[in-house]
Amino acid sequence: MTRVEVDTPHGPARAELHCAEEARAALLLGHGAGGGIAAPDLVAVTRAVTAAGVDVALVEQPYRVAGRRAPAPAAQLDVAWLAVAEDLGERWFPDLPLIFGGRSSGARVACRTAEAGEASAVLCLAFPLHPPGKPEKLRLAELDAVEVPVLVVQGERDSFGQPEPSHGRDVVLVPGDHSLKSDVDAVSRAVVEWLNRILRLID
Q1: pLDDT, tens digit, for every residue of 151-187?
Q2: KANL3/Tex30 alpha/beta hydrolase-like domain location, by residue (predicted)?
Q3: What is the CB-side half-sphere exposure of residue 128 using CA atoms within 13 A?
Q4: Which residue of 42, 72, 102, 182 has the lowest C-beta tally within 10 Å?
Q5: Angle between the N-to-C axes of helices 40-51 and 184-202, in degrees from 0 to 180, rounded to the nearest 10
Q6: Where are the alpha helices (H) located in 29-137, listed in sequence order?
Q7: CB contact at 8 A, 151 and 194
Q8: Contacts of 132 (CB under 8 A, 6+ apart)
């Protein structure tokens, strides 16, 4: 594991790199709004994915590196994420397809930046379809705008809602709530199975 700092227009971000023995792709994973890269689902997915031959970069947004818990505005998150993706793509993963991903808020960032960052696919862990108790405030447009393959892994009791599968978008329900920590093995299995399938298509 290697830690690197990346300069962005909104301050330094940090990436924790976990490299596979013979990588077929690189997965960039962002954290939730108030959490960090030590979230149980992110840790479990990182372990499983590197074992399956995919490099992983766990990305900490500048506001977290600066010690703040309150997230930056969406536009700043997106700009910082794209700066990190460009830097890591050039320095660490120059010949690999990049897959954007994250949990909760990080999943939204991955969706919004997929086109600009030329991501080959998008992984959403616990996508917050709407705020709890406010199903009228849908964020489905962010998911629908992604034109590359998408996997959404969602807790069966997630109070942030349940996205529906659609063309190019798989949705896997696992036991638990928005934290996805009830059955991290089920989360990891879903991600690895999907990655193996889409990487055959990308190759």
Answers
A1: 999 999 999 999 999 989 999 999 999 999 999 999 9
A2: 24-168
A3: 19
A4: 182
A5: 40
A6: 40-51, 62-65, 74-91, 105-113
A7: yes
A8: 159, 160
Token code pair at residue 153: 């892994």
Nearest Cα neighbor of 129 from 89, 94, 86, 178 is 178
CA–CA separation, 21 and 3 (whole Å): 18
The letter for the amino acid at 88 is L
pTM score, whole prediction: 0.96
- Longest Cα–Cα distance of the chain, Å, equals 46
Cross-strand partners of 54: 25
Cβ-based burial of 112 (10 A; exposed 0-12, middle 13-18, buried ≥19): buried
CB-CB contact of 11 with 25 (8 Å) = no
Rounded distance between C-alpha atoms, residue 169 and residue 171, angstroms: 7
